[in-house]
UniProtKB/TrEMBL annotation:
It is an enzyme of class 4 (lyase). The keyword Lyase applies. PROSITE patterns: PAL_HISTIDASE. The lineage of its organism: Bacteria, Bacillati, Actinomycetota, Actinomycetes, Micrococcales. CDD domains: PAL-HAL. This is Histidine ammonia-lyase. Belongs to the PAL/histidase family. SUPFAM superfamilies: L-aspartase-like. GO terms for cellular component: cytoplasm. Pathway: Amino-acid degradation; L-histidine degradation into L-glutamate; N-formimidoyl-L-glutamate from L-histidine: step 1/3. GO terms for molecular function: histidine ammonia-lyase activity.
């Protein structure tokens, strides 16, 4: 959880309502502080669908979410004079989250994606409510949302209810500077009037998969970067361990035409090009090793499969970004219909798939690190890459740290989406647990970042110990950015420096600055 403020980017404005948002636009708003504005077309749709809800508001025939209770209480008919109270009560009761505060970027993504659905005109929200929500997001007001509360069906109810509560002027928020304030105070300072919810609006504000989708969008962007980083770190390990790049030849990978595999192999070829270390053992008469270990030889197959899984996740995210998730929904031809589109299964599955991918990629990375530290397998390097083995322990315990993270990643790979605990008196008898899948995926991404950082740190020292032989220009650019070899020193700061290099994208930028764009 982070309390840091998101600096508002007034130069970058994302228009909502013309068509589906892109993954990059979600990240621009969530992390980059981009402002949003509603299209005139979307506002016209909002007004049209609201007129339909207004006609039903006084109807004596029960309509779910307008004149009935919710969930298992859907059979309860609500008298006319209590129907607006029904909406306020819904938000207050459903804002029932508990546990640590989730990251500001997650809340901003959640708000944006709910606004995007509201702007389709399929929810029956009023224009005044929608524009107030937009103003709250643009003012940098971020409701306090908690770790626990969503079962991923009927959408992310508790997280979205905390956001809606703030729109009503109630509950805690963080202002644009990151300070915790009462929502009413923060809205007043921003010149925004609290919303008095009317029929159907409470339900429209909370019935969506926006939190889990927001986490998926950000995870996709993060994992794209990390999978390019994986290819660079693998190349560094292949080079430092005197492995061969022959197995990355394009014609070999064309025999098994998986797109991701071919891209990873191409990255490895590019990064390893012109390596003096590699050329030193290219002559088969001088090199007795017939084949490298799997963690070197099969690097493109594993990282490539991860890329293909990520591509599937991007497809699912793009479909969800084009969706209008609510229940009931106002159809294009004016009907108000119940449905099950709020179920988070499509998003939950891919969130879990990515956690599985991360665990496996990290596991292979750790195996490459371990080879560097074992004098029986590291092709002539010092034990543990220590400056003076025995006096110095080198990177012995860095591998312990890496192994501990990989073990945690394997636990996080256990799918959340296979679990379901019935709720709402068995009315909601199957749920997706997609929010939980998103929460653990964020921890998985942090773990992979740290595992790759330790592999890069280790490989850089291994490469340095091959002197006077020089590494490839691509790997050399990364090695220069990492701490160099020497006697034992306080190692945690070196690891954190490597983590920053990987997480910021600087490791990729250093390599690309020499070899050009990598896939």
């Amino acid at each position: 959880m982070t309390d840091t403020a998101v600096e508002q980017d007034t130069q970058n404005v994302v228009e909502v309502g013309i068509g589906p948002l892109t993954i990059e636009q979600v990240v621009d708003v969530a992390r980059g502080g981009a402002a949003i504005r509603l299209s005139e077309e979307s506002l016209a749709e909002v007004r049209a669908s609201r007129s339909i809800i207004d006609r039903l508001a006084d109807d004596t025939i029960p309509h779910y979410g307008i004149s009935t209770g919710f969930g298992a209480l859907a059979t309860k008919h609500i008298p006319l004079e209590q129907r607006r109270q029904l909406q306020r009560s819904l938000i207050r009761s459903h804002a029932a989250g508990s546990g640590p505060e989730v990251e500001r970027e997650v809340v901003r993504a959640t708000m944006l994606l709910r606004i995007s659905t509201l702007a389709t005109g399929r929810t029956g929200i009023r224009e005044e409510t929608l524009t107030a929500y937009v103003a709250m997001l643009n003012a940098g007001i971020t409701p306090v949302v908690h770790e626990y509360g969503s079962l991923g069906c009927s959408g992310d109810l508790a997280p979205l209810a905390h956001c809606a509560l703030a729109l009503m002027g109630e509950g805690p928020v963080r202002d644009a500077a990151g300070n915790v304030k009462d929502a009413g105070e923060a809205l007043a300072e921003a010149g925004i009037d609290p919303v008095e919810l009317q029929e159907k609006e409470g339900l429209a504000l909370i019935n969506g998969t926006d939190g889990m989708l927001g986490m998926l969008c950000m995870a996709i962007v993060d994992l794209r970067l990390l999978l390019t980083t994986v290819d660079i770190s693998a190349a560094m390990s292949v080079e430092g361990l005197l492995g061969t790049d022959d197995v990355f030849a394009a014609d070999l990978h064309a025999l098994r035409p998986h797109t991701g595999q071919e891209l990873s192999a191409a990255n490895l070829r590019i990064v390893l090009a012109d390596s003096e270390i590699r050329e030193s053992h290219r002559d088969p008469a001088a090199c007795t090793r017939v084949q490298d270990a799997y963690s070197l030889r099969c690097a493109p197959q594993v990282a490539g499969a991860a890329r293909d899984t990520l591509a599937h996740a991007e497809l699912i995210a793009s479909r969800e970004l084009a969706a209008a998730v609510d229940n009931p929904v106002v159809t294009i031809d004016g009907r108000v219909e119940s449905n099950g589109n709020f179920h988070g299964a499509p998003v939950a599955y891919v969130l879990d798939f990515l956690a599985i991918v991360i665990a496996d990629v990290a596991s292979m990375s750790e195996r490459r690190t371990d080879r560097f530290l074992d004098p029986a397998r590291n092709a002539g390097l010092h034990a543990f890459l220590a400056d003076d083995p025995g006096v110095d322990s080198g990177y012995m315990i860095a591998q312990y740290t890496q192994a501990a993270i990989v073990s945690e990643l394997k636990r996080l790979a256990s799918p959340a989406s296979v679990d379901s605990i019935p709720s709402s008196a068995m009315q909601e008898d199957h749920v997706s647990m997609g929010w939980s899948a998103g929460r653990k995926l964020r921890r998985s991404l942090d773990g992979l970042t740290r595992v790759l950082a330790i592999e890069m740190l280790t490989a850089a020292r291994g490469i340095a110990l091959r002197a006077p032989l020089t590494s490839s220009p691509g790997t050399a650019a990364v090695v220069r950015a990492l701490p160099g070899p020497g006697p034992d020193r306080f190692l945690a700061p070196d690891i954190e420096a490597a983590v920053q290099l990987v997480g910021s994208g600087d490791a990729v930028r250093h390599a690309e600055g020499v070899v050009g764009r990598l896939a």
